[in-house]
Automatic annotation (TrEMBL), chain A:
Binds 1 FAD per dimer. Residues 3-181 form the Electron transfer flavoprotein alpha/beta-subunit N-terminal domain. PANTHER family: ELECTRON TRANSFER FLAVOPROTEIN ALPHA, ELECTRON TRANSFER FLAVOPROTEIN SUBUNIT ALPHA, MITOCHONDRIAL. FAD binds at residues 201, 226-227, 240-244, 257-264, 278. The keyword Flavoprotein applies. The lineage of its organism: Bacteria, Pseudomonadati, Pseudomonadota, Alphaproteobacteria, Rhodobacterales. Keywords: Electron transport, FAD, Flavoprotein, Transport. GO terms for biological process: fatty acid beta-oxidation using acyl-CoA dehydrogenase. This is Electron transfer flavoprotein subunit alpha. It comes from Salipiger aestuarii. GO terms for molecular function: electron transfer activity; flavin adenine dinucleotide binding.
TrEMBL record, chain B:
The keyword Metal-binding does not apply. InterPro entries: ET-Flavoprotein_bsu_CS, ETF_a/b_N, ETF_b, ETF_beta_N, Rossmann-like_a/b/a_fold. This is Electron transfer flavoprotein subunit beta. It comes from Salipiger aestuarii. Keywords: Electron transport, Transport.
Amino acid sequence: MAVLVVAEITDGALSMDATAKAVTAARPLGDVTVLCIGSLARAAAGEAATISGVARVLCAENALYGHRLAEPVAALIVSLAGEYAHIVAPATTDAKNILPRVAALLDVMVLTDVTAVVDADTFVRPVYAGNAMQTVRSKDEKKVITFRTSTFEAAGTGDPVTIDDVAAADAPGLSEWLEDRVAESDRPELTSAKIVVSGGRGVGSEENFAIIEALADKLGAAVGASRAAVDSGFAPNDWQVGQTGKVVAPDLYVACGISGAIQHLAGMKDSKIIVAINKDEEAPIFQVADYGLVADLFQAVPELTEKL
Amino acid sequence: MKVLVPVKRVIDYNVKVRVKADGSGVDLANVKMSMNPFDEIAVEEAIRLKEAGKASDVIVVSIGVKQAQETLRTALAMGADRAILVVAADDVHTDIEPLAVAKILAAIVKEEDPGLVICGKQAIDNDLNATGQMLAALTGFAQATNANTLAVEDGAAVVAREVDGGLQTIKVTLPAIVTTDLRLNEPRYASLPNIMKAKKKPLDEKTAADYGVDVSPRLDIVSTAEPAARTAGIKVESVDELVSKLKDAGVV
């Protein structure tokens, strides 16, 4: 059977990393078709066509799909669903917005944040903030799935495959885009960064986050934050690492002033190397850290920035 | 305008989750249960809309076991006007899937005709993040998920949504489904007098069958396991030692 992978596209640009990881996850399920949706999607489709293991690319380029509003995008995916046994996407906020709507329109359950494929009907996903891993078997004829990208390797690239245009579906016209406020940043994207430097409640204020950012910039890293730091207004929510934020698995994760609440660990414990800097030697973060430094972060972090 | 808020009874977020030794699930017997934190934010937002004169009634709904009545009483104590309990399971370990929940909610939406439904973005037990979107699909309403701010005016809601990399502001035609993110508001605590008053507020009890919805699961749970454990490494004594370890590991 065939699999439809919904590519991650923002303002016409393909997120190669997230999409190529979803292709890797989808490959064991059947022939992979990648669907590129957007008001600008052709360049992204051209790029997606080079991902190894992709059999075909569909391009739905239409002004209706600018800003990827859930109602028209879900209607389009449902209009194409017929020939596919699996409809999947990387578990981005965009896909999490759209795919459950697709599933309900098809009268099937959705499986979100899947971390492993057992067989065509059986999947593993974390529950309870990653404190348990559940293996579930779907009885639905079609499966609608988002894959947690941090657990799959990105597929490589090769010779491009054919790109076919698809027609727009009926648009319900229930919602309207007003504005995007995107944080301007030269830093790498949090979920695909090789290094992540995160701050917690211990950082103390929004201004103090500058020392976390300085270390991140020295390392060419993305900046993360614990939910406690976000709740306290020290950091924006799109920096949040954890069950209710982003799940990351970089080569190096540096946790500064983070106690290590279960909800935070769920978002970073698959990192290859974890460093924890915290003045409380009893902090649970040290139970998962490869290298722990019991120190005042206001001294240790600037010193680390200087010595690296 | 009525506002409908679905609330779920889940394991309290401070409780350490234990996987049962036989792999059949998570132990929920004699464990502290609370309202799903994102649903608390949804209840708070609905009450604020009422206080601002934008909503007339706040109706809370819970679908699950009979004990969810306590969760509804909490929402009533916060300031909701009335509650609907839909009993759909006997065993506290039975989780009603979002698709079935959305079907029951869609039937309630038909009866109650709310202008707005505010849901938590995800429940902290199954972490599915699906009910709001599924309800939007089944009702044919617009959806605005992961709300950071919500403003209601002239038959529409303007919602700033938390998305990867920042905020996206959209305008949805009412009736609509909004799901709450963390920073939408800080939920109030119910005062003792309000907890007493809540006991007298109306609570209707229904069953899934009353709405003609089949709640049998689409997903069979094969097994539930502990996640792979990570072992603690070493403590370093100084920043210099840390730097040399990281250099040895080849990550800097």
